[in-house]
Q: What sequence folds into this?
């Protein structure tokens, strides 16, 4: 049994003042091996919480997550994570960051060196491999984070708004890079994002979550990720379906936000 | 007050002069193109010309007010009056007769042995007097003692230089201020000028001579280097022990509930206790020898380093720890490769603070009791009014404290170049 199975996950945070927040309620999904899934939703819908549970940083109050048949109980090298920012190690060079995972496993330079150099080539940082992290731009730093994750050869890559802190142009380039890496490596990827366009472009499957309590609102199967692998993403965006789905999802999120605002005002 | 006004005057004059001659500070690089500099702190740079003038001004004022050789003599402030001068006083007897007499006094620098000037006794029942007064001192003189009709015969002094004077009153003569005591004696204070007396503030060259003397001959059986070396040795050993215990303690407090709970009350209580307040207890327990001082400095550094290490752990971005776990790190690997390097900037900041506190504490501890050390040197010197040694000691303490801080900053730049840049 391969793939990632998320079964009936619920998450409740008990607050110090006695009340509780239902961050996730009965979330289930199956992700096939090699699938790229994007999760979209307004802030507060629990998408980051869900990712942290899958990564093993949080234990759900209910439900089980299984990867390739065994239960997820904590963080593990089989599930790599790419953070929005600030997760690189400033005290190491670019190359030392990328080779961090293999080194922690006790591998020798001979074993990982070739692969690390290959990955630095793929993300276009071969010339920067000896630079310090703080000398790189935000986009380059995210490419280091991607390469570092891939160097560890995880089964699943979890991305928590990895491109959220980048400017629009860099972001487009990075979206192409993510698709390219997905196709080349065949990894299972779960990507969380705020951006509807990004979710559409990068997701074979797109899940829209709704807030309070966090739950799956709607699911789409999309062709754009496959289209975008070899094409210019700007061409993909011109596809008539792209426009239709985007408007539909934007409207959906808009309604959710309205509903939240209404509810907050009602309680006041 | 006068030195302050002169200082302010030089400040303004130098500013105007430099502006007029060389213009404003030449700005280079990016900030040269900024039009808004007032309010933009990053565009404010120290004008090094001002720094140089500032230091020269300090030495100038110091030299000028002490009559130093480093300042040309026409720039010296007026010194104390030296030499011979006179004033007259008038005596009135009970039955109304008056007579004048002249007081001749010789003011001489301290340390010189001089004879009173010879004077003619003069005519009348008031006899002329002759006095010797050391510079900066005053002389209480019973001038009527040699008079034919004096205080014991009911006569009293009624005027000085023709100006009437009463007990408690005063008359300013050419070279001296003359006051009258309640019993009718005259107190003569020659003009002291504006200069500082060497026992209050010695001129720079005296301090320099003393530096050479203490460097070669020593002070209280130890040379200057030994005094400073002892202080520095105590600081380094005390700080090293404090860091050796404090840093692991801080890590443990940042990583374990039990350690945090156990040591929190101790650390939080000890942190606000000034190390100086521990000196009496340390002396009671460990005496005034080396071990007492090192224990004191150990305690001074311990809490600072423990807190620095603890905040270094808590300051680690949780994403880094999560990332390291996701990359397959074990707990020891997280500690070794993430937490320790990530806390280094905090630890360096703590170390700088701790070294500063230790340096201050060691001097204070030596002031209280020590056989040798920079603090002991200035304390003993002050008891003997050796102001030059006190000033010399303060300068050396400042130089070393500054040197320690520079060294720590250099170490910080080399070892944690990523500080503040992530």
A:
């Amino acid at each position: 049994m391969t793939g990632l199975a998320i079964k009936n996950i619920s998450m409740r945070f008990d607050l110090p003042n006695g009340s509780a927040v239902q961050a996730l309620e009965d979330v289930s999904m199956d992700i096939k091996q090699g699938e790229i899934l994007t999760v979209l939703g307004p802030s507060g819908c629990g998408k980051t919480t869900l990712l942290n549970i899958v990564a093993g940083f949080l234990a759900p109050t209910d439900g089980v997550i299984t990867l390739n048949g065994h239960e997820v109980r904590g963080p593990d090298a089989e599930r790599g994570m790419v953070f929005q920012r600030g997760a690189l190690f400033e005290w190491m060079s670019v190359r030392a960051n990328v080779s961090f995972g293999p080194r922690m496993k006790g591998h020798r330079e001979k074993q990982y060196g070739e692969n690390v150099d290959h990955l630095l080539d793929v993300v276009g940082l071969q010339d920067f491999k000896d630079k310090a992290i703080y000398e790189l731009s935000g986009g380059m730093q995210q490419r280091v984070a991607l390469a570092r994750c891939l160097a560890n050869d995880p089964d699943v890559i979890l991305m928590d708004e990895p491109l959220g802190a980048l400017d629009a142009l860099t972001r487009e380039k990075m979206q192409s890079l993510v698709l390219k890496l997905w196709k080349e490596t065949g990894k299972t990827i779960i990507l969380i994002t705020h951006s509807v366009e990004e979710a559409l472009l990068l997701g074979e499957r797109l899940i829209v979550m709704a807030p309070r309590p966090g739950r799956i609102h709607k699911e789409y199967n999309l062709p754009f990720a496959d289209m975008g692998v070899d094409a210019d993403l700007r061409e993909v965006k011109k596809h008539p379906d792209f426009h239709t789905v985007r408007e539909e999802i934007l409207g959906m999120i808009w309604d959710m936000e309205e509903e939240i605002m209404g509810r907050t005002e009602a309680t006041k | 007050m006068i030195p302050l006004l002169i200082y302010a005057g030089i400040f303004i004059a130098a500013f105007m002069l430099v502006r007029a001659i060389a213009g404003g500070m030449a700005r280079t690089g990016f900030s040269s193109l900024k039009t808004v500099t007032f309010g933009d702190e990053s565009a404010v740079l120290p004008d090094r010309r001002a720094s140089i003038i500032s230091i020269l001004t300090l030495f100038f004022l110091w030299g000028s007010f002490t009559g130093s050789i480093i300042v040309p003599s026409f720039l010296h402030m007026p010194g104390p009056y030296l030499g011979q001068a006179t004033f007259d006083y008038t005596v009135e007897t009970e039955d109304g007769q008056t007579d004048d007499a002249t007081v001749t006094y010789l003011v001489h620098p301290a340390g010189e042995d001089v004879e009173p000037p010879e004077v003619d006794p003069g005519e009348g029942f008031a006899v002329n007097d002759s006095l010797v007064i050391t510079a900066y001192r005053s002389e209480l003189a019973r001038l009527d003692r040699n008079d034919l009709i004096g205080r014991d015969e009911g006569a009293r002094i009624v005027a000085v230089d023709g100006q009437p004077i009463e007990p408690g009153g005063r008359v300013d003569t050419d070279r001296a201020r003359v006051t009258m005591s309640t019993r009718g004696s005259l107190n003569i204070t020659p003009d002291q000028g504006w200069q500082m007396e060497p026992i209050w503030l010695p001129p720079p060259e005296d301090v320099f001579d003393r530096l050479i003397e203490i460097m070669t001959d020593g002070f209280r059986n130890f040379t200057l280097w030994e005094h400073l070396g002892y202080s520095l040795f105590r600081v380094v050993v005390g700080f090293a022990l404090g860091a050796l215990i404090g840093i692991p303690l801080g890590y443990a407090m940042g990583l374990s509930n039990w350690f945090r709970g156990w040591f929190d009350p101790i650390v939080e209580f000890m942190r606000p206790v000034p190390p100086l307040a521990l000196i009496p207890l340390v002396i009671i327990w460990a005496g005034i020898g080396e071990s007492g001082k090192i224990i004191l400095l150990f305690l001074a550094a311990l809490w600072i380093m423990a807190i620095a290490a603890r905040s270094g752990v808590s300051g680690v971005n949780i994403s880094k720890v999560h990332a390291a776990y996701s990359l397959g790190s074990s707990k020891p690997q997280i500690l070794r490769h993430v937490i320790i390097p990530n806390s280094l900037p905090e630890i360096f900041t703590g170390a700088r603070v701790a070294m500063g506190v230790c340096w201050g504490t060691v001097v204070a501890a030596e002031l209280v009791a020590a056989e040798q050390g920079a603090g002991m040197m200035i304390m003993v010197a002050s008891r003997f009014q050796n102001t030059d040694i006190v000033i010399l000691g303060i300068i050396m303490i400042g130089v070393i404290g500054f040197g320690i801080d520079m060294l720590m900053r250099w170490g910080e730049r080399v070892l944690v170049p990523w500080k503040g840049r992530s």
